[in-house]
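wait is this the right file?? whatever heres the structure
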């Protein structure tokens, strides 16, 4: 039950377009925080494989159910543990707070110092930290989704 709640919150944070569908860029944001390092062309291929493997239209993106199916599938490289879900959610929320700080500064606000706390108890400086999740770099989120994946990723995991 807690996993479903965290997964739903993560989906909402990633749904920056407000469409209740996660498209290529929204899932890429998650992949990048997880340490996936790919070119635009590689990501386009991986996103297409994910959309085929988990049954969503690549043009509209994954709905909540499809997203949860992807991150819950323990047989794929897209699977996320409960711990990874929590860290990813915290990192993305921190990134959004950081963006809010930058947006505030762009509108003439004074830069925050480490002593100026936001309502959430964080400072802009604190929210700019490096991701705590990236301990093992990934080259792919699709290495185990489809047996036909490019062989340079096939034995990655």
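ok assuming it is, sequence goes like this
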């Amino acid at each position: 039950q807690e996993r479903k709640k965290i997964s739903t919150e993560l989906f909402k944070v990633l749904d920056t377009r407000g469409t209740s569908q996660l498209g290529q860029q929204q899932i890429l944001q998650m992949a990048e925080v997880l340490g996936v390092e790919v070119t635009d062309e590689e990501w386009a291929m991986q996103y297409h494989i994910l959309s085929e493997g988990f049954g969503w239209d690549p043009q509209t993106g994954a709905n909540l159910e499809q997203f949860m199916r992807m991150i819950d599938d323990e047989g794929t490289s897209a699977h996320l543990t409960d711990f990874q879900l929590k860290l990813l959610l915290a990192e993305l929320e921190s990134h959004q707070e950081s963006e809010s700080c930058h947006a505030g500064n762009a509108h003439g606000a004074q830069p925050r110092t480490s002593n100026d706390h936001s309502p959430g108890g964080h400072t802009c400086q604190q929210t700019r930290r490096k991701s705590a999740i990236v301990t093992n770099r990934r080259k792919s989120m699709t290495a185990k989704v489809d047996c036909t994946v490019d062989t340079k990723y096939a034995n990655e995991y």
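The helical segments are 2-14, 24-33, 40-54, 64-72, 82-106, 124-127, 151-154. so i think its the right one actually
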